[in-house]
Please model this.
Amino acid sequence: MWKSLYFWVIAAIIAGFALGAIAPETAIAMKPLGDGFIKLIKMLIAPVIFCTVVTGIAGMRSMKNAGRVGMKAIIYFEVLTTLALVLGLVVVNLYNPGGGMHVDMRTLDSKAVESYTAKPTEDQGVAEFLIHVIPNTLFDAFAKGDMLQVLLVSILFAAGLLSLGDRGHHLYQLIQQFSDVTFRMIGFVIKLAPLGAFGAMAYTVGKYGISSLGPLANLILAFYVTCAIFVFGALGIVMRLCGLRILPFLRYLKEELLIVFGTSSSEPALPRLMEKMVTLGCSRAVVGMVVPTGYSFNLDGTSLYLTMAAIFIAQATGTSLDLEHQLLLLGVLLLTSKGAAGVTGSGFVVLAASLSTVGHIPVEGLALILGIDRFMSLGRAITNFIGNAVATVVVSRWEHAIDMDQAQAALGITETPSAAETVSPLAITAHAHALAPQSLNPAA
Model:
């Protein structure tokens, strides 16, 4: 146990929490530990994505197969993130966490959120978004660490490598060897995870304080309960349809989940997630396509947060929202939620952009939740991470590109597969639609 990364990350999180509560000023000074760890991991993400995607697609022997995998992933992402948005909208209407606050708009500190609203998303329509995916130069994507740009370069490089046929075999082997070296580097860096978790947790508690949670406890409770409903309800059903179970799956990813929890970001666990999914039995090609894409397009936790936080602000400020306004908000969030990256604070930026676009909910209301956003980012990051892990299983199962015996052995599942485990993954999107509530109750 003493040699387990799991044990030391837990100990570091507890120690960071205690330091933040006892000595806030000292705890805030620990921030570089968390930031440094995240930067070390981000340094390696681009080469990991490049190597995994290139070797995966080249191993498929066909760009047509790669395109099919990508299309299936996008369909799944769209269905599940839409379900998350609708679930968040329904729960916040039913629970009404901001209904009794009656906040006077004149008392809000609008300057506190100016840095988030000054550039209402530089973000863009569909055309601008697609142009942004194209890097200025071949190496610019790697210099910036933009995952979608790296993914585009990787796919194009893989297509070129495939077109070489047998002449590209030596280059393929070289990239595979470089991939092995990169994952060894990650193995070295990940040993620093306890320090990173300690620094990030100490800073969060020291900077924002546990006392900030009290006035907004209803929103925090509603958000975390909704995340649990989504993970164990929606994603649990999806995993059963794939022939696996959610609880053993989460135990399998426990170290990565703790890293995400400790750093409030899902990015530090991305390389380990890719490695773990291959070990689970998923095709390396599918993992290389689904995981990087999912980190930008499959943000289930962020989707839950966006609808709940937006409606909470309306409730707390006494802003009347009818069904038409809520459906408009939902439509805007369907677009803006896809551009958020899986890093700390991105959900708040996207929320600011969405409220600016909708116009009916006061953007100044963001000041209400600014102090607790860091605590809510824990739930966002964990739910995003789990959602992308499940998505990898789904697309692998859909593609018949997962070794189910290996997966069940890795998860410690020994019983004979049940009828539920024989359901085709094609049924997953239909079940997800069925899970979505059929009505909203704005007056609740």
Residues 253 and 276 are 8 Å apart (CA to CA). The chain has a mean pLDDT of 81. The first helix runs from residue 5 to 22. Residues 62-140+211-435 form a domain with the Proton glutamate symport protein fold (CATH 1.10.3860.10).
